[in-house]
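Thought: the user wants the 3D structure for the chain below. I'll pass the sequence to the structure tool as-is, report back what it returns, then summarize two notable features.
Action: structure_tool
Action Input:
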Amino acid sequence: MSRALSTQVDLEIAINGYITPGEDYFDREQQEKRPRPTPLPGPPNAESLARMISNARKSKKGKIGIRDRICCHQWTWFTMATGGVANVLHSVWTPYRADWIWYIGLIFFLLNLCLFIMNCILITMRFIMVPGSFMHSFLDQMESLFIPSVVLSTATIMINTCEYGIPMTGPWLQHTMEWLFWIYIVVSVIASAGMYLILWSTQIFPIHTMTPVWVFPGYPLLLTAPFASTLIAANTTAMNNPPINRLAIAMCAIAVQGTGFLISFMICAAFIYRLMTQKLPRDMQRPGVFISIGPSGFTVAGLVSLGQQSQVVIPDSFQGSTHSVIILRLLSTIVGLWLWGLSIWFFLVSVGSLWKYVRPERKMPFQMTWWSFVFPNTALVTATLALATALGSTGLRICGCVMAALLIVVWALVLMSMLKCLWNRQLLWPKELEGD
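Observation:
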């Protein structure tokens, strides 16, 4: 170690009492050829999945086939972006009632449903063909963070079902979605708490590697208020259907939504600390910055929408006040504006983090985390449109529609990039087996 580096380290120890490891900490250690301690046995790393696939193929040496590619399927393929776009299109359709917007949203909903079924089949085939890979997914540092994506995908499907299905069907679907709402509340709480407990018991995440992806296990909680507001709105639209227990649904959703937002807020605070000490994440982690937009965006969309439906949610005698509806509408709008500003700020930071990729010589390798460019931003768009309705603002509504159009363009670009990487064997390809 050079004298200048030693002085810098000594100075940091003297001031802080500890050394903050940087992203180049281990690379610098290798360059200096210092002896590294023998690593302690721990959970499988990212390379162990490829070794598991290799062991599964030992009995049939040869070219890599479709079975081998299926073995590389991971939880990250459960993207919520397509269902999120369907939700955005429904939010755009609501004030304008244009049939063509509704049908495009319906197409995105059906496409999302097909993708979800396909991913369920592929991930099940991987677990069957590669024994032990199911438990491995809970112990892998990267893949384990995305396991809740299957819960989020289910939530987006149920939200889309309320939007596009309940007004067109009889009471049976409404009753089904009401039961599914309560089941989702229980599942989201258990999945979030359980996943964090598994991570805290089996993994070590140094602060210098922190990204907003750490928020992902808490994301299932963040869709409870949007789910509740959509279910109540669908019940109100379908006037022939019997009323549901709107007050209980709304209050429970607010409680769970608040829990999810506060958990996400605290983790995002750790991300700010990481940015102050370690600069922006590396290229492969950069798309995950957009995940920080979602917590405040989904909370705004859910709370403001519930506030605007206070007249059908709150009984006349609620809390003994006849002004409860007006107060709740005003309170939800003010809180929504407050958190909407936070979501806009994170959006600007996230877009600014991509500035260096404008230069031709700078390229960001494609990963499935690119879908983070879409799904968290669907929360921002729906939040903007919800505030436009609450405030009666034509400017905000036009801004939300423009954002929705740009979001669909981004969705198409990410989809084309994903298909290109699939064709070029950059996705679903066992890297260690290329030489076989």
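Final Answer: Structure generated. The chain has two domains: 1-41, 49-433. The longest helix spans residues 246-278.
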